[in-house]
Design goal:
Elements: H1 12-41, H2 47-73, H3 81-92, H4 99-111, H5 129-140, H6 148-152, H7 157-160, H8 163-170, H9 172-191, H10 194-220, H11 241-246, H12 253-258, H13 274-284
């Protein structure tokens, strides 16, 4: 495979659309989080809002970690069509981009990890503290403003032939909006008030998206700068326990780069990996099969 990489295939219009979407997806959830915090400071926060935040965080979070990442990107396990569909819809609710874009970007990250062509590496930005800051910003969020559309249209033959994956990808906007509307409707119905509807939207919707965004982006940035290394991989991937907690197990990033197709990222007993627990549980009730471990996992993506 040709390892040369260039974003030149992206049209200027496509790049502009990607930049606008990225700007909205980054700023609006943050504004929602700030608004929710202000209302909470003024005693507009209930147990209902906290529960909605946690439930929606877990649904969308597992949709990304178990669905977008371990199921669709790395094919770490197999499951029935309806389970694949639910994983994909839940991942779309995280508002991290359509399925094909997310998968193409992450596969490219593994292909070029921490070398020229990696879409979001914090490395190779110069020397010194200033370079580290520039690298952190680029890997955390800045990369999405730089020709990301070229990676979104990269050929994905396995998913392109998958009807379920195509439906999930094309319905991204619908699933994302549903993930924002659902906690609002539930909050309004339970409380019987418009304020309950608003705080449900803010906490279960926008604030949840904001926190989940930064949890996922920290795998790109923090986990290639700070943490331990259990394996000598060619890149600078790291295991970071704090990121592992907020990202539902994705923070064991050095383990993941050592065994990309393994469904389990937390390889030691003390490395908490909630996504692996979910996959293991699905396998126990025969809703997941062909689960890849480190013995079966290939070094290839």
């Amino acid at each position: 495979m040709n390892r040369a990489f260039s974003p030149s295939n992206a049209t200027s219009a496509g790049v502009r659309r990607t930049q606008i979407f990225t700007l909205v997806a980054v700023i609006v959830p943050w504004l929602g989080f700030v608004t929710a915090a202000v209302l909470a400071w003024n005693n507009f926060l209930s147990l209902r809002d906290i529960v909605l935040f946690v439930i929606m965080y877990l649904i969308a979070g597992f949709g990304v970690t178990g669905g977008y990442h371990r199921l669709f990107t790395h094919r770490s396990f197999v499951c029935p069509v309806w389970v694949r569909f639910l994983f994909g819809v839940a991942g779309s609710m995280a508002v991290q981009g359509p399925l094909f874009f997310w998968v193409a970007t992450h596969r490219r990250h593994h292909q070029y990890s921490d070398i020229a062509g990696d879409p979001h590496s914090p490395q190779n930005h110069g020397e010194g503290f200033g370079a580290m800051i520039r690298g952190f910003y680029h890997s955390h969020v800045g990369w999405m403003f730089r020709g990301a559309d070229a990676m979104a249209v990269r050929s994905l033959p396995d998913l392109s032939r998958d009807k379920t994956a195509r439906v999930i990808h094309r319905g991204f906007v619908v699933w994302a909006l549903a993930g924002l509307a659902l906690p609002s409707v539930v909050g309004g119905l339970i409380s019987g008030t418009w304020m309950g509807c608003l705080t449900g939207f803010l906490w279960g919707g926008l604030a949840r998206v904001c926190v989940a965004h930064h949890a996922t982006w920290s795998v790109n940035s923090v986990c290639h700068l700070w943490g331990g290394r259990d394996f000598e991989t060619p890149d600078d991937s790291r295991n970071n326990p704090a990121v592992a907690v907020v990202s539902l197990g994705e923070g064991w990033h050095n383990n993941h780069h050592a065994y990309p197709q393994s469904a389990r990222h937390g390889l030691r007993w003390f490395q908490l990996d909630p996504t692996w627990m979910l996959i293991w549980s699905l396998a126990r009730v025969r809703l997941a099969s062909n689960v890849q471990g480190i013995r079966q996992a290939s070094a290839k993506v």
